[in-house]
Design brief:
The complex is a heterodimer. Chain A is built from 10 helices and no strands. By secondary structure, chain A is an all-alpha fold. Chain A has one domain: MetI-like (MetI-like fold, Orthogonal Bundle). In chain A, helix 8 packs antiparallel against helix 10. Chain B is an all-alpha fold. Chain B has a domain of about 140 residues: MetI-like fold. Chain B has 11 helices and no strands. Chains A and B meet through helix 1, helix 4, helix 5, helix 8 and helix 9 of A and helix 2, helix 5, helix 6, helix 9 and helix 10 of B.
């Protein structure tokens, strides 16, 4: 879990467990202990994946799901970060949003989906609002702690040098809180995929979550496994891009603060 | 008396945003600004709790949901602690599992629900499997982190005094991992609740999530809100319980 230099040998050593995993899967599927419909062999899932990769409609579904997840995420950030920043600098704002954050923190966010269906109907609007609501709290909480944790001495020195409050926020507090904000972005990114897919599974006409259930219901289990594999791989790539972006933008920051 | 009154007043004053929202909700709904099927008055929602509770539509679904959450969590804690400790102690296990865990950690676990339904059916077991699979990762990480932070001096001292492998695990490594495991529990419990409710909403089969979807389909909006408030209260109370448990278990540990 520590960052060591990436050598070809190390890469190979980290890839080998995946090969072993696939071999174990294949052995289980071929052994006849498990009904092959319940665990299709690796090559069938792989050929289903290739088939999906060649079909236009699969990319359309992926684009729909990603668009909903990232759209909700962007809205969550656009609303959550200012609220968190406001709470950190103003006791009045903190007094208003603080109790609301505390009261809704333990609410399972998917519980709002039935209400949103009632209000907005089945479709992208419900999905995007559900993602927005569930990513809101990580942005609020981390931005708040990030800005509240800015060393007093930085704020005092800036003030002593006559920096006006607005510039103080943009030039001192937000840069110092960038790290916390990127951490919240990573957490919220994970939430956004979960909520977008869950909302599609609950009620939707399109999207990858809906697609998986269609494959499951029609008995095309090799395609269902292929879709799950595609989602896992894409979520991993999205997470790595966020971490890479964060470490690149924050390369002036201390090494030990970097995301893993 | 005066101090109790004063502190009660202060508590009310600090909760003013919640009261404000409740009042605005009630006023907007009563004034007929929105159709009751979209937003019934808060008082109607609270009144709806009584007939629901009388028909046994509160306690029984709550019990089903909590059973699934608890069973999934129990599996996740057991498996997570085993894997985490093995990874911390045995290099081969770490080499084998670390890349697999790093790869699947960021994946949306809900995507596996169709697979679990295929394997375990639509009753309890597929939901428990989803909860266990969602929550096992934070526990693996917590157990691993806890076990790797045991000071080497303590391990050597225990060894020098002739502590065997199993007692070393049980008496030294596991207690040292407890603080990080309790933090893992606080992260894991909300995940477990969300996974349970979501799986119930998607696949049905009883429980609060499934009842809520049914109420939504029949446009019984007050009932949807009742279940929403019960989920909120359950999450809140369980979180307080976990915090108390943490304080109790870690009373020897300076934070």
């Amino acid at each position: 879990m520590t960052a060591a230099p990436v050598t070809p040998l190390r890469m190979l050593s980290r890839l080998l467990p995946f090969v072993l995993f696939l071999v174990a899967w294949e052995a289980m599927a071929k052994s006849g202990l498990i009904d092959p419909r319940f665990l299709p062999p690796v090559e069938k899932v792989a050929s289903a994946l290739v088939d999906l990769g060649a079909s236009q409609s699969f990319y359309t579904d992926l684009a729909v799901t990603f668009g909903r997840a990232l759209g909700g995420l962007a809205l969550g950030a656009a609303i959550g970060i200012p609220i968190g920043a406001g709470m950190a600098v103003s006791p009045a704002i903190d007094g208003f949003f603080g109790p609301l954050v505390k009261a809704t923190y333990s609410l399972p966010k998917t519980a709002l989906i039935p209400l949103l269906i009632l209000w907005l109907g089945i479709g992208s609007a419900t999905n995007i609002v559900a993602v927005m609501l569930s990513t809101l709290l990580p942005f609020v909480v981390y931005t708040y702690h990030g800005i509240a944790g800015v060393p007093r001495i930085l704020v005092w020195s800036a003030r002593a040098m006559g920096v006006p409050p607005r510039r103080l926020l943009w030039k001192v507090m937000l840069p110092a809180a960038q790290h916390a904000i990127f951490t919240s972005l990573r957490i919220a990114l994970g939430f956004s995929f979960v909520i977008a897919i869950a909302a599609e599974m609950i009620a939707a006409h399109s999207g990858i979550g809906k697609l998986m259930f269609i494959y499951g219901e029609s008995g095309s289990y090799d395609y269902m496994f292929a879709a799950v594999a595609a989602i896992v791989a894409l979520a991993y790539v999205a997470d790595r891009i966020t971490v890479g972006l964060s470490n690149r933008l924050l390369r002036w920051d201390d090494i030990e603060n970097r995301l893993g | 008396m005066r101090t109790i009154g004063a502190s009660l007043l202060r508590a009310l004053a600090s909760a003013y945003p919640l009261i404000l929202i409740a009042v605005v909700w009630e006023a907007v709904a009563r004034a007929g600004l929105v159709r009751p099927v979209f937003l019934p008055p808060l008082s109607t929602v609270i009144a709806q709790l009584v007939p629901l509770a009388k028909d046994g539509e509160v306690v029984a679904p709550l019990a089903i949901s909590l059973y699934r959450t608890a069973a999934g969590l129990a599996i996740a804690v057991t498996a997570g602690v085993c894997f985490g400790l093995l990874m911390a102690r045995i290099r081969l296990v770490r080499w084998l599992l670390d890349p697999l865990i790093a790869f699947s950690f960021p994946s949306p676990k809900i995507a596996f629900l169709p697979v679990f339904i295929l394997w375990f059916g639509i009753d309890h077991l597929s939901k428990i499997a989803l909860v266990a699979f969602t929550c096992v990762f934070p526990f693996i990480v917590a157990a691993y982190a806890g076990a790797t932070t045991v000071p080497t001096n303590q391990l050597w001292a225990a060894r020098a005094m002739g502590t065997g492998n199993l007692p070393l695990l049980w008496r030294v490594i596991l207690p040292a991992s407890l603080p990080s495991l309790m933090s893992g529990l606080r992260v894991g419990v909300p995940y477990a609740l969300v996974s349970t409710f979501t799986a119930e909403m998607i696949a049905g089969g009883g429980g609060l999530g499934s009842e809520m979807m049914l109420a939504q389909r029949y446009f019984e909006t007050p009932t949807v809100f009742v279940y929403l408030l019960i989920m909120l209260a359950a999450g809140y109370l369980i979180d307080i319980g976990v915090l108390r448990l943490r304080e109790h278990i870690l009373r020897w540990h300076e934070e």
